[in-house]
Amino acid sequence: MKSEKESEKGTGYFLQRVFKSSLSPFLWLLLVFLTWLCYLILMMPMIRFGHSPDPDDAFMFYAIARNKIDTRGLRIVHVVEDIESLNQRALRGELEATAVSVHAYAFLADHYAIMRSGASIGEKYGPIVVSREPLDTSRYQVRYGTGSQNLSRPYLVPLTTRSSLRGKRVAIPGTLTTANLVLKLFEKEFSYVLVPFDKILDYVKTGRADAGLVIHEGQITYQDKGLHKVIDLGEWWWEKTKLPLPLGVDVVRKNLGLETMKVIARIFKESILYSLEHREEALDYALPFGRGISRELGDQFVSMYVNHYTRELGQKGEEGIRALLIRGFVQGLLPKKVVPEFI
């Protein structure tokens, strides 16, 4: 127990004793080192980089998040929000780099450029529209598949028409999502209600909307809710254009200057390549963003949207983006003709 005399001496007395002890040189060195380290971190240029809370985006960011690659002296701070929130933040110019919808890019093109790596693109697949019951089974199409004895056999599938959704109430994840733009290219005459993307399946299942526009892992889990696919918009887009459907891209703000823009784009590409080369550990990091899906489904979803277009857009990927923006403008869904800038 402290004596009354020691208590009166207060905190200053005991600090003096500490720094006069044999440990004082070590403590001072540690203090100096930590101060220097904090100074260096604070002096690093900060890049706020937004991505959505789903497995494919998280997979791409793994190497940056876990300091697996050189970030060239940049302090990259993750901003994890749903894609519609990121779209809105980019519209306000709040983020130096971020994932955005290609739809939203039409309103951002003056201030952001598209990075050639990091795109979420589906070839012959994409967002889907689901319903509790088939919306239109009056028309069917004959398709051919592989039977149990590897023989090609015909089967019937419902043929979705524009009238299937006309006048229906559709739950959508955001007005600026690419899924919403493509749905309007398919059919404009529907009403909508905004619902968080991870709540849409339940919203439709409980009958609060006639149909739901599904993005992210809901594209492969909707059947678990007993829902029916009305249309795969990526499949429809392919039939119309023979191009992949670009859904999300990563953009970087132009006022950072060309050299910094190139550095950020290069860092992000390296992060993607690292994750692909260290797939299992990157999946370990990404799966918690999948809202309880199994590793098998998580891996399947990542494979769908972290593909060769994600590594590098290439000519076909860039054509897909241009085609979507042109069609949106021609149909009166975008305010002006946009010429995308790539970096």
Description:
The protein has 343 residues and is an alpha/beta fold. The protein has two domains: 47-121 and 244-330, Periplasmic binding protein-like II (D-Maltodextrin-Binding Protein, domain 2), CATH 3.40.190.10; 128-241, 3-Layer(aba) Sandwich (D-Maltodextrin-Binding Protein, domain 2). Helices cover 43% and strands 20% of the residues. It contains 14 helices and 13 strands. The protein has helices spanning 4-20, 24-43, 55-65, 83-91, 102-105, 178-186, 200-205, 218-221, 233-241, 258-277, 279-286, 295-305, 308-311, 314-330, and strands at 46-51, 75-80, 97-101, 112-114, 120-122, 128-131, 140-146, 152-158, 169-172, 191-194, 211-214, 228-232, 245-253. The strands form three sheets. Strands 1, 2, 3, 4, 5 and 13 form a six-stranded mixed sheet that branches. The protein has a five-stranded mixed sheet with strand order 10-9-11-6-12. Strand 1, helix 3 and strand 2 form a beta-alpha-beta unit. The chain is globular, with a radius of gyration of 26 Å. It starts with a helix and ends in a 13-residue tail after the last helix. The model is unreliable at 1-8, 137-152 and 155-159 (pLDDT under 50).
Shape field:
globular
Separation, N- and C-terminal Cα atoms: 68 Å
Number of strand segments: 13
Question: Unreliable runs, pLDDT <50, ≥5 residues?
Answer: 1-8, 137-152, 155-159
CATH architecture of the largest domain: 3-Layer(aba) Sandwich
Helix content: 40-55%
What is the CATH level 1 assignment of the largest domain?
Answer: Alpha Beta
Order of SSEs, N→C? HHEHEHEHEEEEEEHEHEHEHEHHHHH
Based on CA atoms alone, the radius of gyration comes out at: 26 Å
CATH domain topology of the largest domain: D-Maltodextrin-Binding Protein, domain 2
Q: Beta fraction of the residues?
A: 15-25%
Number of domains: 2
- CATH superfamily of the largest domain, please? Periplasmic binding protein-like II
Largest sheet data: 6 strands, mixed
Number of helices: 14
Average predicted confidence as pLDDT: 86
